[in-house]
Write a structure and sequence with these properties.
It is a single chain. The longest helix is centred in the C-terminal third of the chain and has 21 residues. 36% of the residues are buried. This protein has a 6-stranded antiparallel β-sheet. It has a two-stranded antiparallel ribbon with strand order 1-2. It is globular. Helices cover 45% and strands 20% of the residues.
């Protein structure tokens, strides 16, 4: 029997469609992986994924796997206010001013990560990553953070071709932050920490980045505490109802 969420809406087909979208939020999935994650019967999972693809809530990557589709981004944009992005702006600016380095917020989308908000260093050498930049999940401290808390099977798949390994990610989980030096781009270094939403799930990575000659080959020693504090503050803001904020 197909198992929808124990706290379903009462509209079974909608609850099952949400199971499919929730599964794809962690990255690309084959039909077999969708079945394993959602616990839906194979024909049901296939029928829902194809129907969602028709409405552009689901798409396919180059390997034919199911991924989240463009309609979700379009709806988010048309809604006007993205709570995470609204809260992130002032925090990124404060982090930039405190550390003296450019600050960014990344979300994962399939096999890539996207810069959804940034506060650039106004002058001097900087690691410029404009909003909308699409970067690999195979390198960089933000990629490490976005992968480190994934389910084991997705984590293993994400490590294929990555410039970091499982031991690196175990360290990220243990210390609560990641650093990279020349991993994504020669001469650049970064520090990232997880932003967590409801259920303590990692929904984004908050980062600072700059040239190695300024942030050194151990950027975590300089900036990890500040980046973690900013990420925790952002997590707190997006999990607190607006009427309860001070």
């Amino acid at each position: 029997m197909d198992n929808a969420s124990s706290e379903g809406s009462g509209v079974g087909v909608l609850d099952k469609a949400m199971l499919v979208l929730d599964a794809l939020e962690s990255g690309p999935s084959t039909l077999a992986e969708l079945v394993a994650t959602t616990k839906l019967a194979r024909p049901t999972a296939h029928r829902l994924a194809v129907a969602l693809e028709h409405h552009r809530f689901v798409a396919r990557d180059l390997q034919g796997r199911f991924v989240l589709g463009p309609r979700l981004t379009e709806l988010s944009t048309s809604a006007g206010e993205d709570r995470l992005l609204v809260a992130a702006g002032p925090i990124l600016q404060a982090l930039r001013d405190h550390c003296g380095e450019s600050a960014q917020l990344f979300r994962r989308q399939g096999d890539q990560r996207i810069c959804v908000s940034s506060a650039e260093r106004p002058m001097g050498l900087r690691d410029s990553i404009p909003v909308g930049s699409v970067l690999s999940m195979h390198a960089g401290s933000a990629a490490q953070v976005l992968l480190a808390w994934e389910e084991p099977d997705r984590l293993h798949r994400g490590l294929q071709g990555a410039r970091f390994n499982a031991t690196t990610l175990a360290g990220v989980r243990r210390q609560g932050w990641a650093q990279s030096v020349g991993e994504r781009e020669a001469g650049a270094a970064s520090v990232s920490a997880p932003v967590r939403g409801p259920g303590n799930r990692v929904i984004a990575a908050l980062s600072i980045s700059g040239p190695i000659e300024r942030v050194t080959k151990q950027p975590g020693r300089l900036h990890a505490n500040s980046v973690v504090a900013a990420a925790n503050r952002l997590s707190e803001l997006i999990r607190t109802p607006a009427e309860d904020r001070h």
